[in-house]
UniProtKB/TrEMBL annotation:
Limits of the Aminoacyl-transfer RNA synthetases class-II family profile domain: 115-337
Domain of life: Bacteria
Annotated GO biological process: phenylalanyl-tRNA aminoacylation
Cofactor: how bound: Binds 2 magnesium ions per tetramer.
Localisation per UniProt entry: Cytoplasm
Subunit structure of this chain's protein: Tetramer of two alpha and two beta subunits.
Catalytic activity: tRNA(Phe) + L-phenylalanine + ATP = L-phenylalanyl-tRNA(Phe) + AMP + diphosphate + H(+)
Gene: pheS
Protein name: Phenylalanine--tRNA ligase alpha subunit
Length: 337
């Protein structure tokens, strides 16, 4: 009789554990504890047993009854907790995919450009966004009344310092600290008092690079920047250098590439010229070298600077700079990881 009880207990508990719905658990309750349930039948039959056995079996059966009642009510609670508005949740369904962050398209392009230059020996450095007039202008051959200051409509701080208008400030700081040969690139935020429109923003990003050593030539400048343009925009683009003016380089030039939108045929982006300007460059001005204590008779060098928004827009054919700052997830999700 006792072994029969043990068997009932074992079967009942494993049945309760397997039950996967409230209906299952109710069936289990009826078949063991119901009026004609297996355990109820045992309890009913106790009367016909010898006194000693009746005591033992009765005690054991009552203990098992309590144990099963407890197991059934706990399982019921568990199954009820899983239901929402009376429905069971299908736990085999996959969960919601978590949103994964991505790099901003400006960062993607900056990283790519840094890769292109570090492959040919350039090192990446950072410079301060809050700068003195000296590093932002004077050391770069832009004295106080120089007309170039007009195009750099500057945000000044109360203490006389300013938000840098160009990443060129890094050049002077690096040259002051070190001795040639120097091959440096740097990128970051710049600030000018521009009203936001499709091509202007008061905060924007520049990437700057320079190479200083003995006997650095304009040919090396051209070779380096054509290599960069082909790596970044594709081997099939055409390039041309057009004379230009910057206070801290002499001679100065702008690099143009064949328009990636119309492939040189002429369109709105290239103003129907077939070419678009991608960066400014030139041989570093002797005055800049004098300001950092280099002998212009001994060293030469070139520098280049580009607007990262402009390059990113050309690369991905984006026609409005404001898209970069609106943080519309539908826009940002189109770019790589
Ligand atoms: Zn075009």
């Amino acid at each position: 009789m006792l072994s029969n009880l043990r068997e009932i207990r074992h079967d009942a508990l494993s049945g309760i554990a397997r039950a996967s719905s409230l209906q299952d658990i109710e069936k289990m309750r009826v078949s063991y504890l119901g009026r004609k349930g297996k355990l109820t039948e045992v309890l009913k039959g106790i009367g016909g047993l010898e006194k000693e056995e009746r005591k033992l079996v009765g005690k054991s059966a009552n203990e098992i009854k309590k144990e099963l009642e407890k197991a059934i009510s706990e399982k019921k609670k568990k199954l009820e907790g899983r239901g929402v508005k009376g429905k069971d949740i299908d736990i085999t369904l996959p969960g919601r995919t978590p949103w994964v962050g991505r790099r901003h398209p400006i960062t993607i392009c900056a990283d790519e450009i840094c890769d292109i230059f570090t492959r040919i020996g350039y090192s990446l450095v950072e410079g301060p966004e809050i700068e003195t007039e000296y590093y932002n202008f004077e050391a770069l051959n832009i004295p106080e009344y120089h007309p170039a200051r007009d195009v750099h409509d500057t945000f000044y701080l109360e203490d006389g310092r300013l938000l840098r208008t160009q990443t060129t400030n890094v050049e002077v700081r690096v040259m002051e600290r070190g001795k040639p040969p120097l091959k440096i690139i740097s990128w970051g935020k710049c600030y000018r008092r521009d009203s936001p429109d499709a091509t202007h923003s008061p905060v924007f990003h520049q990437l700057e690079g320079f190479y200083v050593d003995r006997n650095v030539t304009f040919r090396q400048l051209k070779g380096t920047l054509i290599y960069f343009a082909k790596q970044f925009f594709g081997e099939d683009i055409k390039t041309k250098f057009v004379p230009s003016y910057f206070p801290f380089t002499e001679p100065s030039a702008e690099l143009y590439i064949s328009c990636s939108v119309c492939r040189g045929k002429g369109c709105r982006v290239c103003k129907h010229t077939g070419y678009v300007e991608v960066l400014g460059c030139g041989m570093l001005h002797p005055n800049v070298f004098r300001n950092v204590g280099y002998d212009p008779g001994e060293y030469t060098g070139f520098a280049f600077g580009m607007g990262l928004e402009r390059l990113t827009m050309l690369k991905y054919k984006i026609d409005d700079i404001r898209l970069f700052y609106e943080n519309d997830i539908r826009f940002l999700n189109q770019f790589g990881p």
